Amino acid sequence: MRKLAAGFLPFALVGLLGLSSTGCIKKILLDGQIASTRKGSTAFNTVSDWEIAYKAASAGIAQMEGMHYLGPYNQDALLMLTRSWSGLAFGFIEDEMEQAQDQYGEDAEMVAYHRQRAVAAYSRAIFYGGKLLEMRNPGFEEARKNAETMQAWLREFDEPEEDIENLFWFAQAWLSRVNLLKDKPEYVAELYVGVEIMKRALELDPTWNYGTIHGVMGAYHARTAMAELDQAKEHFDKAIEISEGRSLLVKVNYAAKFYCAKVDKENYVRLLQEVLDAGDPLPEQRLQNTIAKRRAKRLLAPWRMEICGFPS
Q1: Which of 48, 124, 201, 301 has the most CB atoms at less than 10 Å from its CB?
Q2: Apex CA 174: angle with CA 96 and CA 79, to 5°?
Q3: Could you read off the pLDDT of 222-238 as tens digits, one per residue?
Q4: pTM of the prediction?
């Protein structure tokens, strides 16, 4: 055995030196670290302290930006950047925007400031998400011509385990940015891009992440009082069924979008109060539910309810 080991050692050293000279060892180590970070990132969803989560999310993005710089080819890093920038905008920056609305009024300078921050974060998510989707299936720019060309391009995304999260976070960022830029016709005109991508994610797995995609599609169909409210209700009800009512953001959007559009104060208040009284129904989504409770409380403010046209 000693002779065998002695004979093997030079070959092993030569192999390691060869790997080192081409940078393969660094690549293996970096890819392993990124993969481990993605796998472990799910634990972040169990945090309940909004302030701590905000700081941790900001620090985590800085780390992932560095990892992407070192490994621009790595799809896990691109996904985490897409998800992190979109999540930061939705869960934290938009929250600060709502705080500013409550404190200073809808037209205040601080509201515009935080809105622009959120738009910038969503734009960065779209940038990284676009690179990721292009790696998976080239041709996004050509597909943006219309809904039909988008649908044709999206048919190539047919592996749920690989594609659904990539599609969801890109579409979520796209739709959220349009929502913040409703007064910009050039952005509203391309709303269909995010819608078609979200639809494809729904086709791949309608139960993904406790029915989250149904919840997003419900909010889309209830975007105005003149939109497709019957379809919105179907999606919201399906999302609640899948999560057994434990995913609270669905109920918040159900109230804020559907029941507001229907001018149904009773069900609006009922759903939001259910959110506030829910306790800790889904530890795997504790952070999302914390965000939901913050928004539910704000939506019960008299001035926000007046926007829905509820009688006093």
Answers
A1: 201
A2: 90
A3: 998 889 999 999 999 99
A4: 0.91
